[in-house]
Amino acid sequence: MQNLKTQSLKNTRVLIRVDFNVPLNESQEITDISRISAAVPTIKKVIVNGGIPIIISHLGRPKCKDSTLSLYPVAKKLAKIMNKNVIFLDDCISKKVKSKLSSSTYGEIYLLENLRFYKEETNGDLSFAKELASLADVYINDAFGTSHRAHASTYGVAQFFKGNKYCGLLLEKEISSLNSVFKNPSRPFTAVIGGAKISSKIDVLLSLLNSVDKLIIGGGMAYTFIAAKKGKIGRSLVENNKIKAALEIIKKAKENNVNLILPIDSVNSISFKDQLASSVSEINKIPANEMGLDIGPKSIDLFNKEILSSKTILWNGPMGVFEFNNFSKGTLSVGKSICESTYKGAFSLVGGGDSIAAIKKFNLTDGVSYISTGGGAMLEYLEGKELPALKALS
């Protein structure tokens, strides 16, 4: 893939695919600007290199044109962040858009309307991709979070630019950081995997067992592993149809000499609520009327010890229901340990929406080496899959 470092873009229109799929509240106000800020370096680089940025993105999952999912609020926020005027166009492929962009001049920045207002975007329609390609002379993909999808703006469009297609600075940084973890890690290499269900992460767990030295399992998925080992987990979350998969992971970890570390105790409650009284038990002896909602103090000590002895750390998924204060201690403690290990020289990468939400909630973002903007894309990359959008740039 070509990068932007020395590429002259003088007086060229540059189509930049970013990931501005930001969270909005009921008033269409942006509640987290991280994804916008992450794209700014590439936009600025295009300007410095002489180009005219034409920014495209999706937002949400609209079934048709939907004013509540317009990118107009994003245009206003981007203008504020960059301290520059951003021209918002209320479509992405109309004659009006083409006419406006054909007369664009250096110094202007454009943001087009939500790509997913057209079903052709997610369908990967080549005619739609060609329409997008006709808007510019150069194409840049800086949207790692959508790179695992063969959509028109990430996969189809690239073929119409031949040698004039590049990876953006964010995309380049994502790949470099993932390669630091996956292809050439300093050891010991520890993966900390949590979240509610094992079903969405079976493939990545099996893949990680070919690379890691230690695999720590927490969160709701841990109870499926305990159930597979015949433990009593009360009313805890369990995927009975994934018991066999859990046993396969346990077996492969042993075969590959990977230290598979499961929780040894659990913080429980009789209901999925924050303020109810909690109890602590051994994780394989949870009372029949209770459910596990966080790892217990012994598990915290065990996990922290393993994290602090690591040189490379991948974290995806919380250790419990961190949104509830009564069940956030496990996730907070693991986050702090990852930050401490990073401070001592380890490389740490955090990815996945819940993990990122947790480190932001606990103000730990500055303590880790890198925060990946792609949840599903990151997991598929770690599985060893070829991501369509990256293939299209090659």
Quick overview of this protein structure:
The protein is of the alpha/beta class. The chain is built from 15 helices and 17 strands.
Which key phrases capture this entry?
Rossmann fold; 17 strands; 16% strand; alpha/beta; 2 domains; single chain; 6-stranded parallel beta sheet; 394 residues
3D structure, described in words:
- The longest helix has 15 residues, at 34-48.
- Helix 11 packs parallel to helix 12.
- The radius of gyration is 23 Å and the shape is elongated.
- The mean pLDDT is 94.
- With 394 residues, the chain is an alpha/beta fold.
- The chain contains 15 helices and 17 strands.
- Strand 15, helix 12 and strand 16 (347-350) form a beta-alpha-beta unit.
- Helices cover 36% and strands 16% of the residues.
- The protein has two domains: 13-172, Phosphoglycerate kinase, N-terminal domain (Rossmann fold, 3-Layer(aba) Sandwich), CATH 3.40.50.1260; 185-382, Phosphoglycerate kinase, N-terminal domain (Rossmann fold).
- A six-stranded parallel sheet has the order 3-4-2-1-5-6. A six-stranded parallel sheet has the order 10-8-7-15-16-17, with helices on both faces. It has a three-stranded antiparallel sheet with strand order 12-11-14.
- It has helices at residues 34-48, 72-82, 95-102, 119-123, 126-133, 152-156, 169-182, 202-208, 221-228, 243-255, 297-308, 329-343, 353-361, 376-382, 388-393, and strands at residues 13-17, 52-56, 87-89, 110-112, 138-141, 165-167, 189-193, 214-217, 232-233, 259-261, 265-269, 279-282, 285-286, 291-295, 312-316, 347-350, 370-371.
